[in-house]
Amino acid sequence: MAITAAMVKELRETTGVGMMDCKKALAETDGDMEKAVELLREKGLAASAKKAGRIASEGVVDIFISDDNKIGTIIEVNSETDFVAKNQIFRDYVAVVAKQASKSTAVDMDAFLAENWDLDSQYTVKEALSQQVAVIGENLNIRRFEKFEKAQSGKLVSYIHGGGRIGVMIELACENESDELVELGKNIAMQIAALNPKFITEKDVPADFIEKETEILTLQAKNDPKNASKPDQIIAKMIEGRLKKELKEFCLVEQPYVKDGDLTVQKYIDSVAKTVGASIEITRFVRYETGEGLEKKEENFADEVAKAMI
Questions:
Q1: What's the longest Cα–Cα distance across the chain?
Q2: Tell me, which fold does domain 5-51 have in CATH?
Q3: For the whole model, what pTM was predicted?
């Protein structure tokens, strides 16, 4: 029996399994839809469809840096439980995804999931993910990635904190690609992991961000009874002072350096630049924290048992 695209689509929608596996199952069962579903269940692939609705808010952040230090990729892959996040099979899979992302030209996650899987080109990245769901037994989600391609002399440096809970990738521009530059990158990446700055310098802060923060600080000041009798110009100066303080917290180079509170990050960079004999600039950085902004799964053991009995 000829296997049509409509049949493959129907089986895929029914089971949630990848297109290639659906096509193979239909071919093996001569187009019998029920037998194809049974076959996929026997192979452990159709099980992934039942898991697709579960919240995946645990997981790990991983980083791949190419051997020539020209390309770096940071990626977050989520799992349902912290137990699976610590599983070596899962971590090995995430490492492969990070390497695949370093070669990707995708502009969004849908395009990335549609690319051919490097380890087996008959599958897409999404289909390979579905197979991992079946193997590991939890819903998994490739949530996001960012890729840096170095365009000038310097270093791409990575830092992973807490076994993959937080990951930071940073690009430094410098004519001298010495070991001191790598050490500097690691230390600043640790700073970013700990204090979570939003911008590199004050000049990177968008005008609308300053406008919004000023609005918030103004409302806070006006709602404070202690300021009721203060003139508007005094309140305006208070707001200006608070904004400057906030910007020092938000801007990386203005922050106190965590390893030496007597220095700002910029002064630490300047001291290393003097040692290596070349100027150093942080051109960009990205910080991922596992599960940030995601709904957390809150279920008790009794609920799990009750669901398993259905």
A1: 86
A2: Helicase, Ruva Protein; domain 3 (1.10.8)
A3: 0.74
